[in-house]
User: Which sequence fits this backbone?
């Protein structure tokens, strides 16, 4: 279908467009003042936009999993839909675990900084 150069060019165009879409999403959700609501929304959109998956079992190329799933559902083929949803779910689980760890570290840091500033006063 594509040679290697075309495949990489298409992926670079997609990654640029997805990054712009994610930045627009962050600006659209900027009004949410609660960081523990806003940042998981950013995480969900990042997983949806940036999770690749192998759409054709015998082809080495990858495609965005959400787009592959949407095309499977809209066109009614449904052959790869469970695999694509599984890839999205796995990526969401790993990203959520990483985010929870990051959020816990941030809470510990804020607690430590507030205790340190109270001791200095």
Assistant:
């Amino acid at each position: 279908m594509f040679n290697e150069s075309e495949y990489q060019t298409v992926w670079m165009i997609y990654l640029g467009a997805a990054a712009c879409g994610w930045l627009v999403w962050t600006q659209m959700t900027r009004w949410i003042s609660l960081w523990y609501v806003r940042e998981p929304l950013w995480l969900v959109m990042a997983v949806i936009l940036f999770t690749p998956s192998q759409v054709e079992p015998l082809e080495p190329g990858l495609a965005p999993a959400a787009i592959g799933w949407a095309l499977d559902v809209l066109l009614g083929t449904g052959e790869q839909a469970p695999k694509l949803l599984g890839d999205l779910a796995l990526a969401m689980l790993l990203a959520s675990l990483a985010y929870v760890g990051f959020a816990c570290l941030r809470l510990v840091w804020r607690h430590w900084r507030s205790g340190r500033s109270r001791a200095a006063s």
User: Anything to note?
Assistant: The chain is about 75% helix and 5% strand. Residues 4-92 form one domain. The radius of gyration is 19 Å.
